[in-house]
C-alpha cells in the first residue's frame, strides 16, 4: 500500500502514515492531475495506491481519472475527503460534484458512501481488495457510530426499514437525518452504500414503492438521485423525488445552515415525506 497526497497530508489525515511508512508516502504538491497519473503508474506496477484528496480538488484530475485509471481499469483507491457540504471553507471547497463526475466513469468504477465510522473503515479495507478502481467519499468531521450490518455486502444497498409505498433512499451522513425524519412514519428506508454504478439490482430493491425520495449532499440535478430517476423513468411506474444540493454556489456557513439552505435538515426531510406518503 502506498499513500499519495497533493500538499494536504494533515488535512487528509496522512501524517501518521508518513511518519510510520516514509518510503511509501508521496506528496506531489498542488498537482492533483499528477497525483492521479502517479497512482495509475503505481497500480500498473503492482502496488496498491491510495490517493487521499478533497472532493473539490479531485475535480482537477478528471481527465486523468478517465484516461489513466478507468480506461486501464487499474486498482487505485480514492479516499475522497470533504465530500458534500463542508461548512465555512467557502464556495470553492464544497464537495458537491463528485457523485456527478464519478457516475460518468466506465468499467464499473465504484463509488461508496459510508454512513458511519464503522462503514468507512470497512469500505476502505474492501476497496483495497478490488482489482478495479474505487472511491470512498466521506464527509468532513466524524461520522456517527452505527453497528455495521455485515450481512449486506459493502457495495450493496442496505434495507434499514422495509419498502413501503413511500420509501426514502439516503446516502452518507444524511442517513442519520433521514432516519430521524422517518421515525414513527410508515415509510421505507434504504442506506445507499453504493452510489454508482446503479442498475436493475437497485431498482428491484424498490419493488413495492410508488414514490421514492432520495437524500444526498451532492448535486440534486446530477447525483445518485438523478441516476435513479433515469432508471425509474424507463420502468414508468415509479416516481422519484431528489433532495440534494441545488445548482447554485454554496457560501460559507455552518453545516447546519447549509443543510437548511439545501432542504436537508431532519424537519425539512420529514415535511417532504409527509407530503408524498399521502
Task: Walk me through what this model shows.
This protein has eleven helices and twelve strands. It has 278 residues and is an alpha/beta fold. The chain has two domains: 2-137, 3-Layer(aba) Sandwich (Rossmann fold), CATH 3.40.50.970; 158-276, 3-Layer(aba) Sandwich (Rossmann fold). The longest helix has 13 residues, at 32-44. The strands form two sheets. A seven-stranded mixed beta sheet has the order 2-1-3-4-6-5-10, sandwiched between helices. It has helices at 15-20, 32-44, 55-58, 62-70, 98-102, 117-127, 174-181, 200-205, 224-235, 255-261, 266-276; strands at 2-5, 25-27, 49-54, 77-81, 110-112, 134-137, 158-161, 166-170, 188-191, 194-196, 211-219, 239-245.
Query: Which range best describes the helical content: under 10%, 10-25%, 25-40%, 40-55%, 55-70% or over 70%?
Result: 25-40%
User: How confident overall, as mean pLDDT?
Assistant: 96
Biggest sheet, in brief?
Answer: 7 strands, mixed
Question: Number of helix segments?
Answer: 11
Summarize, please.
This protein is an alpha/beta fold and 278 residues long. It has eleven helices and twelve strands.
List keywords for this structure.
single chain; 278 residues; alpha/beta; Rossmann fold; 2 domains; 7-stranded mixed beta sheet; 5-stranded mixed beta sheet; 12 strands; 33% helix; globular
Any chance you could write out the topology, listing elements then pairs?
Layout: E1 2-5, H1 15-20, E2 25-27, H2 32-44, E3 49-54, H3 55-58, H4 62-70, E4 77-81, H5 98-102, E5 110-112, H6 117-127, E6 134-137, E7 158-161, E8 166-170, H7 174-181, E9 188-191, E10 194-196, H8 200-205, E11 211-219, H9 224-235, E12 239-245, H10 255-261, H11 266-276
Parallel strand pairs: 1-2, 1-3, 3-4, 4-6, 5-6, 8-9, 8-11, 11-12
Antiparallel strand pairs: 5-10, 7-9
Helix pairs in contact: 2-4, 7-11
Amino acid at each position: 500500500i502506498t499513500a499519495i497526497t497533493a500538499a494536504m497530508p494533515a488535512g487528509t489525515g496522512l501524517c501518521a502514515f508518513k511518519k510510520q511508512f516514509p518510503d511509501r508516502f508521496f506528496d506531489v504538491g498542488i498537482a492533483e492531475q499528477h497525483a492521479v497519473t502517479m497512482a495509475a503508474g503505481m497500480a500498473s506496477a503492482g502496488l496498491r495506491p491510495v490517493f487521499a484528496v478533497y472532493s473539490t480538488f479531485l475535480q482537477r484530475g478528471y481527465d486523468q481519472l478517465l484516461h489513466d485509471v478507468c480506461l486501464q481499469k487499474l486498482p487505485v483507491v480514492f479516499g475522497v475527503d470533504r465530500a458534500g457540504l463542508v461548512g465555512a471553507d467557502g464556495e470553492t471547497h464544497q464537495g458537491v460534484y463528485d457523485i456527478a463526475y464519478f457516475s460518468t466513469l466506465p468499467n464499473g468504477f465504484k463509488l461508496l458512501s459510508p454512513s458511519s465510522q464503522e462503514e468507512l473503515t470497512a469500505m476502505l479495507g474492501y476497496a483495497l481488495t478490488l482489482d478495479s478502481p474505487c472511491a470512498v467519499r466521506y464527509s468532513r468531521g466524524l461520522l456517527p457510530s452505527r453497528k455495521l450490518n455485515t450481512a449486506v455486502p459493502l457495495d450493496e444497498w442496505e434495507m434499514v426499514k422495509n419498502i413501503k409505498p413511500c420509501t426514502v433512499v439516503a446516502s452518507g451522513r444524511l442517513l442519520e437525518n433521514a432516519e430521524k425524519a422517518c421515525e414513527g412514519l410508515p415509510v421505507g428506508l434504504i442506506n445507499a452504500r453504493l452510489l454508482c454504478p446503479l442498475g436493475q439490482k437497485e431498482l428491484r430493491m424498490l419493488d413495492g414503492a410508488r414514490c421514492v425520495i432520495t437524500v444526498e449532499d451532492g448535486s440534486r440535478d446530477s447525483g445518485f438521485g438523478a441516476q435513479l430517476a433515469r432508471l425509474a423513468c424507463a420502468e414508468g411506474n415509479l416516481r422519484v423525488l431528489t433532495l440534494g444540493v441545488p445548482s447554485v454556489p454554496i457560501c460559507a456557513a455552518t453545516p447546519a445552515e447549509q443543510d437548511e439552505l439545501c432542504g436537508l435538515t431532519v424537519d425539512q426531510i420529514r415535511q417532504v415525506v409527509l407530503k408524498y406518503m399521502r
